[in-house]
Amino acid sequence: MKEGKHISLKDLACELGISISTVSRALKDSPEISGEVRLRVKALAKEWNYRPNPFAMSLLKNTPRIIGILIPDIVTHFYSSIITGIDNIARQNGYSVIITSSYDSYKAEIQCIEDLVNVRVEGIIACLSQETTDYLHFTSLEDLNIPLVFFDRICLPDVFSSVIADNIESARLATLHLLNTGSKRVAFIGGANHIEIVRQRKHGYLQALREYRIPIDKDLVFCKYMGYSEGYEGACKLLSLSNPPDAILAMTDSIAFGAMKAIKEHRLRIPDDISLIGYTDEMHSNYVDPPLTAITHQTHKMGQTVCHLLLKQIKKREKPQQIIIPTYLAVRESSVKNNQRVPPTKNTI
Amino acid sequence: MKEGKHISLKDLACELGISISTVSRALKDSPEISGEVRLRVKALAKEWNYRPNPFAMSLLKNTPRIIGILIPDIVTHFYSSIITGIDNIARQNGYSVIITSSYDSYKAEIQCIEDLVNVRVEGIIACLSQETTDYLHFTSLEDLNIPLVFFDRICLPDVFSSVIADNIESARLATLHLLNTGSKRVAFIGGANHIEIVRQRKHGYLQALREYRIPIDKDLVFCKYMGYSEGYEGACKLLSLSNPPDAILAMTDSIAFGAMKAIKEHRLRIPDDISLIGYTDEMHSNYVDPPLTAITHQTHKMGQTVCHLLLKQIKKREKPQQIIIPTYLAVRESSVKNNQRVPPTKNTI
DNA sequence: TTGAAAGCGTTACCAA
DNA sequence: TTGGTAACGCTTTCAA
């Protein structure tokens, strides 16, 4: 039984007194093997619990069937949910998944890519760190012939395929929703300007203001970093303006929660004094006080879609394409001023 | 340059007109190599971007430097946070990590273990699915000589090492806290009884009641499944009792959030009508209304500790040990009845 | 129908 | 100081 060590074809061949090649063929139902041998081989393989050695296989074929994921972190629900979607599709297609986290550090991101290349992943799915402004570590993957697909925080759309949310439109609709439900001065809290999703969402926000013929007030836009503390900081700054906003569109869930804290500390009521909308898909939006209106991502679908896109690229390199996954606005209490109640959408939970 | 394909030692050797062994030695600073050759080899390796093929290595050494993780899911903050801890330590020690999710299904769990074995992980870190009552798929790992370490939801502590929280004590202290802050009838919502942490936490809960000389009322214990809906269901049932509780100790965060929903639907005030404590370490506990008092796990430390434990077992099989990671009670608003205000602990954020 | 041998990329041992 | 060779587990010619 060879306890401990793994069983190899050689072990089986020895025991049965036949050659390794015969065993190999018998196991894969090669037509040129006698039924009797096949049965004996299979029986023993089963009894001894034989499993092909994946490293020998990878060495031989140079296709380890592993895809690499690079994300900012795994604890943010948005990312872990997308990973779940990726993982499902990968498994269905016989791939394993290996996850690396940049923790939003440019330096760590480079190391992650290096690690993934070193384990010879067949392809990579990535979401940029907030710090990243240089893409050399990604473009150099082309020389190694490792396909790369981005999601959410993307770059170089002419070079790499990507999956994103309908950022412009979602921000536009969210802003319009605020303006339609009693808010007059809508502020925007985002992240650093070099990040594509920041620009897109701000774009949608500004477009809505334009549609409403509201002059743009630069003081109402706070863009620094996407994080809880910056949400808090941004809201504090906005609230201390001589002419403060009566609504905030926060670009991420953590920003929204930070802003919420600031608003409560200022003893303002949500939504009557300040309306608030977040970008999130977390069920926690439902539990906060008041329940948070939020642009909701179809994270699972996003994950599945990126993975499909990558698998396609692995099979056959194609020119880059971009897929947009629609979001929807889950209207809860934080956005509708009380003299403006509208019936909740069916997405409200 | 060999675009596309990976560079091998052979490629370097060919180009330099020396043998493969020499290249191999030069690259790893073998003392028995002339400085001149070493330099030339290293220069070319760098220029051509040579990376050792990990599969050849794994094949040779039979130590792929991969550890497998089996968890119920990745989106629950508790698990993703633990994974982060595991991952940090694993990387520090040159290991990669591969994650599989059982989605709390026994059948899927068996498949996950099978997958991990097939990729030849050197060891496995696992947290049981809620459905699991049979451990054959784990004990059979012993025959394969693959070390296994559990965390949180564990089994067979005499066979496998494990890392757990101080479940009995934490539940005891939480219950005492409720009784000390105005609650008279404390209920417990847990999961299925075959799960060790359920039994332990219930044990701590009952012990606290005994210390307070409060007779045990079976109606106040609801144990079915650890999930949001069951938290809701349990709370509904408890609240409809002829003699309902005035406090609930929920065994997980999702149970607590479900219970919170039920309580609000019953138009009861937290904590004045019903106090509520959850088991969680999420920052979201701070955002809910009211902020949730919760037993807080040191998830990162738990992850690091399991990983260390596993690495030790990989290096040298040792007899199983159990490590207990202390929790602390973060007292917030949901547990202290208003006529009983105590100063918040320093853990309150 | 079966077996022998080469090859995938690397290391380690033995010769030179 | 170097080179040749065997070995890791498997597949795939090529021969028998």
TrEMBL record, chains A, B:
Pfam families according to UniProt: LacI, Peripla_BP_3
SMART domains reported for this sequence: HTH_LACI
SUPFAM superfamilies: lambda repressor-like DNA-binding domains, Periplasmic binding protein-like I
InterPro entries referenced in this protein's UniProt entry, alphabetically: HTH_LacI, LacI/GalR-like_sensor, Lambda_DNA-bd_dom_sf, Peripla_BP_I
Keywords: DNA-binding, Transcription, Transcription regulation
Domain of life of the organism encoding this protein: Bacteria
Domain HTH lacI-type, first and last residues per copy: 7-61
GO function terms (MF aspect): DNA-binding transcription factor activity; transcription cis-regulatory region binding
Key word Transcription regulation present: yes
Protein name (Swiss-Prot/TrEMBL): LacI family transcriptional regulator
